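User: What would this chain look like folded?
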Amino acid sequence: MEHVTLLLAVVIATALVFDFTNGFHDTANAMATTISTGALNPKIAVAMSAALNLVGAFLSVEVAKTISGGIVNEDGIRTQVIFAALVGAILWNLVTWLLGLPSSSSHALFGGLIGAAVMSAGTSAVNGDIVITKVLLPAVAAPVVAGLAALVAARLTFRIGRRTDDAATAKGYRAGQIASAALVSLAHGTNDAQKTMGVITLALVTGGVLAPGSNPPVWVIVCSGLAIALGTYIGGWRIIRTMGTGLTDLRPQQGFAAQTSAAISILASSHLGFSLSTTQVCSGAVMGAGLGRKGGVVRWSTATRMAVAWCLTLPAAALVAAGAEFVTGQGTWGIVLVAVVLVAASASIWLAARRRPVTAESVTASPMTSEPAPAPAPVPGAQPARRDEDTGLGATLAGPAPAPPQSAAA
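Assistant: Here's the prediction, encoded as structure tokens.
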């Protein structure tokens, strides 16, 4: 067993940085609906999610084995290939976080690995069958399945509770939301934390520290769990705002249905070793739950932006990683240059985010502004709020856009 080299140490540290960005990028998956419906205080929500992410990291290693010994061939892959892959994944995570788009950290990592491996050793370095069966097919099927399940569950909950008191029902479902959000956080730890475990294990194999096919060592599991938990605790408030208030308007019943459906999908995929995008699953579940209430709507403009980001994630991360691998392949100076570019780009994105910050206090504001969304002014001719006969919940019909104010002279 060889010693850990400086390059290998840098790769491990970079992998943990990616794990940290994965944490704050995906906090919305578990807690956006819980925060938007008022079931939990934002800071309490992210603290609970962080703790359960850490616990979930210790429950399974199936997804880690899919990454460390499945997507790319371990033979012939150099350590700097993994470094380049992580650079592509981190930069995509940060760009989409700045834009408030809940894209897939998982696919960013897969794209980075694929792009860097192809640049280094050609297409033979990628196991196409594994990519199709355990990455691409779940990416298409899982959000659809979770969305349909959430839609059915939301309609059932409204149907069952249509004759009950609104306040009592909402209170009960808020309690259920907290439990289901905890389950999503636990499921997130079993799936996403393992991806970093798999990457670090792959790096240790390429560096000769571990034998091919080895499971992640205990210290890798601990470090990966702590990194994603810390990132979750920081709170990706921009993406929480998009998922919580920018995609659809949810009642507690819908939030409970969305989170329960997402948690079941994620836990099932982790058990089968499918390296699922928790972001896509939770987004699909939120949209399904949004349509599960009579009169409920999905803001398709936001959903379209998210879908475009999903489609671009894997190829964009692959291109950046391929470029990074080309530069790192030039020698030590290339590795140093890529590291400097990564730090400089990350700092620039962080400074850009500070110009219009989103915090725990403003996370429920309108997605288009950092200020709380104002109540709409009465519109002449608009239809008044009505009661939904099936659900007992109030719903406001959209009226025409307000006309510009006229002057007194007019």
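The mean pLDDT is 78. If you want, I can go into more detail on any region.
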